[in-house]
Amino acid sequence: MWHLPSDQKVTVVSPTAAVAQKPGDRTKTLLLQIPYQQKLPSSGALTVKQGQTDPVQGWHYDNIFTREPAPAVSFNRTGTATTILSVIAPVSSTANVSYTTRWSKDTYAVTFTIAGRKTTIGITPGGAIYRVR
Fold first, then answer.
1. Domain shared by 83 and 111, yes or no
2. Taking the model in full, what pTM does it have?
3. 121 and 69 inside one domain
4. Contact 25, 9 (CB under 8 A)
C-alpha cells in the first residue's frame, strides 16, 4: 500500500498502473505493479482508497488533531505466499513510461523505457534486485 499526499489526484490507468499528480504540477508519480511469480487477480488488482473509515485508510494528518482525505494506492493479492513487485517512478508530467519483462536463465529481467531512455533491472531467485544496465 502506498500512501500519497492529500494534494495528489490518482488515476488508475490499468490493472497494473496508476498515476498520481498534483493538478498543474510538472511532475507525476507512476505506481506500477509488475506481475512476478503470480498472476494478477481477475479484478481489483489495484485499488485506491481515500477517506475510508472502516478500516481507516486514505488519510493525511497535518497534525495530531487535523486530518484530510488522501489517496492510498493498494496492490492487492490473496493467499499465504504472495509476491508483489512494485515500482514507484517520479517522472516529468509529459514522460511516457513502459516496461517489458523476460526471463534470462534464472533471473527475471524488467526493462523500463522512461522518456525514451532504457534501463534494466534483474531479480534473482533469492529476491535480490540489481541494475543490469
1. no
2. 0.84
3. no
4. no
pLDDT of residue 3: 92
Instruction: State whether 65 and 121 are in the same domain.
Output: no
CA atoms of 34 and 38, how far apart (whole Å): 10
Reported as type and span, the H/E element at residue 112 is strand 107-114
Hey, what long-range contacts does 86-89 have (CB within 8 A, 24 or more apart)? 86/2, 86/31, 86/32, 86/33, 86/34, 87/30, 87/31, 87/32, 87/33, 87/34, 87/112, 88/2, 88/29, 88/30, 88/31, 88/32, 89/29, 89/30, 89/32, 89/114
Coil, strand or helix: which one is 56? strand
Both 83 and 102 in a single domain? no
Number of structural domains found in the chain: 2
Q: Are residues 118 and 62 in the same domain?
A: no
Residues 82 and 100 in one domain: no
pLDDT tens digits for 45-93? Answer: 899 999 999 988 899 988 899 999 999 999 888 777 778 888 999 999 9
**Residues 74 and 127 placed together within one structural domain of the fold:** no
Would you give the DSSP letter of residue 24? Answer: T
